[in-house]
Amino acid sequence: TQLLEQSPQFLSIQEGENLTVYCNSSSVFSSLQWYRQEPGEGPVLLVTVVTGGEVKKLKRLTFQFGDARKDSSLHITAAQTGDTGLYLCAFFSSNTGKLIFGQGTTLQVKP
Amino acid sequence: GAGVSQSPSNKVTEKGKDVELRCDPISGHTALYWYRQSLGQGLEFLIYFQGNSAPDKSGLPSDRFSAERTGGSVSTLTIQRTQQEDSAVYLCASSLFRGGFNYGYTFGSGTRLTVV
Fold first, then answer.
1. Using H for helix, E for strand and C for coil, what is the string for chain B?
2. Is pLDDT of B69 > 60?
3. Residue range A58-90, pLDDT digits in tens
4. Chain A neighbours among B 27-46 (CB < 8 Å)?
5. Residues of A in contact with B110 (CB under 8 A)
6. Which of B34, B102, B111, B112 is the best mutation test for A, with the most CBs of A within 10 A?
7. Is B20 near chain A, with CB under 8 Å?
8. Which of A16, A29, B32, B64 has its CA 20 to 30 A from that of A93?
9. Looking at the partner chain, which of B95, B97, B109 has a beta carbon nearest the beta carbon of A40?
10. Looking at chain B from residue 46 to 105, which residues have their Cβ under 8 Å from any Cβ of chain A?
11. pLDDT number for residue B105
């Protein structure tokens, strides 16, 4: 059972377009994290959202945590080729001490 | 060190051979994790070390996989009698875990293992 469902799995867009990536679950989380992974590198933490309804911005990236803390979204405005990579959402299970990842969304931004 | 260091970065081995993958975590990070990632996929949890507690080995796919963490720092993941399905990128991460809150993982660049 996949606790975190990410959609879409793959996205190919032109530079300058906007996009949204979703991370959904039937479970309630105390927090969610978003990571970006570039080819040949490990994932890098982008943001942690903690409060239901919270919105965080990181330059052209906007992260939102659902009111019920079951889902999150990542919106990129005016995508650039440097945004290309694998975007992963994850939650930290305080019971097990582990970070559980979704399957990821592969984003390709073409020039 | 400044980041999590993994070695080797690439490893090609013959089926049936044993391999050892090394991870140097960030100094002071109490938790260390190993994950496996197949091409373009998400991360599959393997094993987790936290301080002096017994490691959580629940993600190890078979008894051919083992890991140890010496002195609360460096960790080695060993795969015995490698199989072709073991081919993947093996990622190590460390984190500061305090008061029930995880302050975010820092990942190494991974070891790409190819079993031929």
1. CCCCEEECCEEEECCCCCEEEEEECCCCCCEEEEEEECCCCCEEEEEEEECCCCCECCCCCCCCEEEEEHHHCCEEEEECCCCHHHCEEEEEEEECEECCEECCCEECCCEEEEEC
2. yes
3. 999 999 999 999 999 999 999 999 999 999 999
4. 31, 33, 35, 40-43, 45
5. 40-42
6. B102
7. no
8. B64
9. B109
10. 48, 50, 56, 91, 93, 95, 97, 100, 102, 104-105
11. 87
Burial A13-44 (b: 16+ CB within 10 A, else e): beeeeebebbbebeeebebbbbbbbeeeebbe
| C-alpha to C-alpha distance for A26 and A5, rounded to whole angstroms | 9
Q: How far apart are CA B6 and CA A97, in angstroms?
A: 22
Chain A: nearest CA to B98, how far in angstroms?
Answer: 11
